[in-house]
Specification:
single chain; Thrombin, subunit H; 6-stranded antiparallel β-barrel; 2 helices; about 10% helix
Length: about 120
Amino acid sequence: MLKTIPKCILTHDAVLRTVVDTDRWGSPAYTDTSLSRVHVQPVHEYIKTKDDKEIRLNAILFFDCRLSTPSVDWQTLFHSSALEDGQLKVVYGGREYTVYSIDLLPDDEGHLHHVEVGMY
């Protein structure tokens, strides 16, 4: 079994913003979930989307499934249309990021070990 990500690395807090509804003008209404014991790593990576646009990833959020809190249903978020519509957000360090990708990474027994969230 893989070890958890060390606590000394999981020193950041962030806010996960998910769309719960839209107001009468069509603007999204968010619900905020405070994430504790995560790690946000700056990156500078370019990715091509399905429609041939180029996106520059600015950060990756690491969420350990044992130590990070609270428990988040990453499977549902991974399959939600909010991810495709760019309406899933993360606030960290005074900046709001848009989530581009969610990678669910299993341990050697097939259980979810940690999640890597690509953000721009």
